[in-house]
Amino acid sequence: MDLCDTKLRTGVSDIKNNSGNNCSDTQNNVTSKRISDSDPERSNLAGEEPIKKKRKSSNIIDPCISDTQKSSTITIVRKSRPFRNSAAKDINKRNAKGETRLHVACIKGKLEDVKALLVDGTNPNTKDYAGWTPLHEAVHHGFVEIAELLLKYGAMVNVPGYNNITPLHEAVLNNKLGAVKLLLMYGADVEARDVNGMTPRNNCKTEEMETVLNSGVSVSVIKPLTETKAQNLDLGQIILFGCRLNKEQHKQLMTLTQQLKIKMKQSYSSVVTHILVPTDANNACSIDTDVMQGILQGKWIVSCNWLSSCLEMGKVIHPEEFEVRGTSHFPNSDAPKRGRMNAEKQLPGLFNGCHIYLAGVGATYTFDNSRLTKTDVVTLIRSGNGLVLSREPDPESIPSGERTVPYHAAHNGSLAKCSHYVIYRSGRNEPKLKYNMAHIKSLSVQWLFDCMESFSLREPV
């Protein structure tokens, strides 16, 4: 999935190394970027007009929100009640900025409207086109009561927004001490890094704020009144894809889709929600590009044994029990589950913050007895939100907009500050010059495939 596209593409992006045409710069041009309040001490009293955020655009989708992130929602389990009027049926409808009615109510500080929308079932974790959630908006303006209400109704406290800024980043940047204390009580991560590697501590403006953040690690975490549960099954949203099924398994798939009126695809695409695969005795599956792409995009990777159980029960049962444990190379990795949970939590893709250059003109790559073209590998990288460069990066001249940190790298590992990766094929065409610097590394294509298959940025060996 292309990090800077809403659809999956198969071509190589012409992202110039010296042009600054990267995700971070693109965001600055096409999305709204927040600024800190001009007066940090300004209070938000009842009836006071909230401080306005400067926005550069209002109708262009943030190129760094993946399809998976936009489509993955966490179902909040709460007692529903009938809609009071026809307008309430559109509670999740978006405006030109991608904001829902809940976003707007949070921006304007309308506590009662927020409460009514949450009770009626509005999703508190929906992102607008720039990547902001209602919680980001509430803490940005210092509306602590609204922020607390959102958290009680299941708003995710650490969900990253634009440039991977979390609600805690936002509260600290705008010096909203009350909001910071509230977020810490709900488990906000004080070590969360934005796309530039900045943590909330790095953004402190006062000693008081720094003291609160330093003491936050010992705060007992409050659980939301409305817990975030596993995603409910909606037959209308399920789209199945069978991968490497034998004749009998394919017949079961066809029978299930016909009997229960479930959609299916003959080939994989980003709209697929469940990939069905044969598994071994350890509940592991063999790997191919479809499965790897599904892991990167957070799809359900499910054993085909699920088919027979559904047919036996005469209904679609929850697939969690049948979720594949791992792949033949990483049988106990839980990569399918970790990829899916990453998407459900609306976290960035595996290669977020990574600028990747594939060395070798017209190269083909061998993966598990299959030959992949460069276009195939580009598609996989983009499925993990990585940026593909068309020119080899110069370690002495990295554009400022590309000096990012990989979101999924271990903070104390060798990749913590590595923004650029030169991927090469091992063998006679292996480059003589290899980089092993903090910000740029030369790594084999096998390392890249291992990362995808295990859903982790693995420490180079």
UniProtKB/TrEMBL annotation:
GO terms for molecular function: ubiquitin-protein transferase activity. One of its GO terms (biological process) is protein K6-linked ubiquitination. Residues 238-324 form the BRCT domain. The keyword Cytoplasm does not apply. Residues 15-57 are annotated as: Disordered. ANK repeats lie at residues 97-129, 130-162, 163-195. Residues 15-33 have a biased composition (Polar residues). SMART domains: ANK (SM00248), BRCT (SM00292). InterPro entries: Ankyrin_rpt, Ankyrin_rpt-contain_sf, BRCT_dom, BRCT_dom_sf. Keywords: ANK repeat, Repeat. GO terms for cellular component: BRCA1-A complex; BRCA1-BARD1 complex. SUPFAM superfamilies: Ankyrin repeat, BRCT domain. This is BRCT domain-containing protein.
